[in-house]
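Protocol step 4 of 5: obtain the predicted structure for the target chain.
Materials: sequence only (see below). No template structures provided, no constraints applied. The aim of this step is simply to have a reference model before the mutagenesis design in step 5. Sequence pasted as it appears in the construct record:
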Amino acid sequence: MEELVFRQATIADVAGIMPIIIYARNKMLADGKKQWTHDYPAQGDIESDIGGGHGYVLCAEGTIVAYGAIFNGEPVYDHLLGKWLGNRPYVVLHRLAVAADARRHGVATLFMKHVEQLARQRGITSFRIDTNHDNDAMLHILDKQGFTYCGNVSYPPDKVRMAFEKLL
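Step 4 output (structure tokens):
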């Protein structure tokens, strides 16, 4: 795949982001995965990410091929059933999705490497992420990228996710 450009998303990008989100959501559902639902993530979630300065995209020749939301912290992580590797400021990646024609080209891994670089630029040396137990693709990426399983977190009302951390 050609060189990709990582940048903060704008509200004008929503039209390019939503087909990627819908594809990823539908693929998870078709594969029987429980990570996302028929109505999550919704366009409102993406617009809120972008409005808060958290939405990022990877673009190939001006076309969005991946989307993710990067936050400095996640409140549910304060209630981890397990133990984090450290007790320091961290970034969190949510809603990572890759376009259908960009899958299996290392795009998700590259996106995560850009998140690490952004964290370091912010002076942050920890990267945390969570995923569902049946999200085999993400579990493989996390293993390959050196993340450590630290325990489980729960999102209301009853969504338990596996939580991982990588010290940078």
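Step 4 remarks: Helices lie at 14-30, 43-51, 107-121, 136-144. The radius of gyration is 15 Å.
Proceed to step 5.
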